[in-house]
Amino acid sequence: MTVLGIESSCDETAAAVVRVEPSRTVVLSDVVASQVAEHAPYGGVVPELAARSHLRNIVPVVASAVREAGGWEVVQAVAPTMGPGLLGALLVGLQAAKAIALSRGLPCVGVHHLHGHLLAPFLDRPQAVGSRPGFPFVALLVSGGHTALYRVDAPTTARLLGSTRDDAAGEAFDKVARLLGLGYPGGPVIDRLAALGDPSGAPFTEPMKHTRSLEFSFSGLKTAVSVHVRKNGVPPPGAALEDLCAGVQRAIVESLVRKLLLAVAQEGVAHAVLSGGVAANRGLRDAARAACERVGVALHVPPPRSCTDNAAMIAYAGAMLLQAGRRDRWDLNARATFPLEEALA
Ligand code: KG4
Ligand code: ZN
Questions:
Q1: Distance 157 CA to ligand 1 centre (A)
Q2: Whose CA is closest to 195, among 89, 284, 113, 80?
Q3: How far is the CA of 185 from the centre of ligand 2 (A)?
Q4: Given the CA of residue 9, which atom of ligand 1 is nearest to it?
Q5: 4 CA to middle of ligand 2, Å?
Q6: Is the CB–ligand 1 distance for residue 185 below 6 Å?
Q7: Is 263 left (phi over 0), alpha (psi -120 to 50) or beta?
């Protein structure tokens, strides 16, 4: 089955064509137009700007993905992200997908954005850590909008194990970077500076360390950094700034890895997955790899391109829904957002 995926839930306009074969997945095209530069001056995503930018980009992005994949004849179904996300942004991709489905008489199935992230390791991309995971697996999904643990039993069955009570991990990276005047998005900059620093030079405590709960909390860490900066000022570029970034990153990473291991033990699974934009973090990848090795669990991490928002993961999840019999051939008026449990039922 060959599916055109369309993603427009936040600040990337993306389209991809993916061919799902019984034992492998071929990504025929994977186009992403990022709006990061447009939002950077505001220190975060501005919903109105995002919607307008999707409107400008959607046709060229879809056209180029389809052209690269070999033309419209290869496309057998359309799968847009239905939510969650910014409504004005989602509408652009959804309506484009419906128009394509209607005009070409193709099935169209709405995909939950997180379903895409959870299945990203099945894209069989080069530079992935580990091959595709076996079921069941536990996935740690860490992005700018979400931080959650899921148990995934099959391509269309997942259960939420725990999520953040306040900020997402990516949001914590972004907010700390803002406090330190490091620009947006903050994760990649903190990642780079942290690699040069010594975390013990700026000890921040690991959030929710003494509980076996699978929930996360990062707003206290952001407050701790803010108090530290008020007291000591923002360190100038150099060792002190690098140490501060290393300390913040260590606190975030330790919390994420501890909960991942707790979830793996609780669920008794042999496979773990990291996905979402923050899974690009080198500190997190290294710590998760070492921890999983220690407990004999196979770790699977898609390459950074498939961890951040993209349409190939949406196309793949759409193909799984269609193969499971979820087919909206003419009724294209489904709701824009719905809980993951319902989406994967
Ligand atoms: O998945 P994503 O592209 O978008 C959604 O939020 O859905 O994730 C973006 C988030 C941002 O918060 C960004 O700062 C973070 O991922 N991020 C990173 C790294 N690269 C991106 N965080 C830590 N280290 C990184 N290397
Ligand atoms: Zn995402």
A1: 25
A2: 284
A3: 14
A4: 7
A5: 18
A6: yes
A7: alpha
The answer to whether residue 115 is domain-embedded is yes
Distance CA 331, CA 328 (A): 5
Considering the domain architecture, whether residues 30 and 163 belong to the same structural domain is answered as no
- Name the token pair of 82: 């239905």
Closest residue by Cα to atom 2, ligand 1, is 277
11 lines ligand 1 (CB under 6 A): no
pTM score of the predicted model:
0.91
Which tens digits make up the pLDDT trace of 87-123?
999 999 999 999 999 999 999 998 989 999 999 999 9
Query: 170 CB less than 6 Å from ligand 1?
Result: yes
Helix ranges, the chain (H):
36-39, 47-69, 87-104, 113-119, 169-179, 186-194, 219-232, 239-267, 282-295, 304-307, 312-323, 340-343
* CA 181 to ligand 2 center in whole angstroms: 24
Whether residue 171 is found in the same domain as residue 225: yes
- Strands 2-7 and 77-83, by their bridges, are parallel
Tokens of 315: 């196309």
- C-alpha of residue 72 to centroid of ligand 1, in Å: 32
Same domain, 84 and 163: no
Nearest-angstrom CA–CA distance, 338 and 336: 7
Give tens-digit pLDDT for 156-184: 888 899 999 999 999 999 999 999 999 88
- Ligand with the closest atom to the CA of 113: 2
Domain tally for the chain? 2
Ligand 1 atom closest to 113 (CA): 7
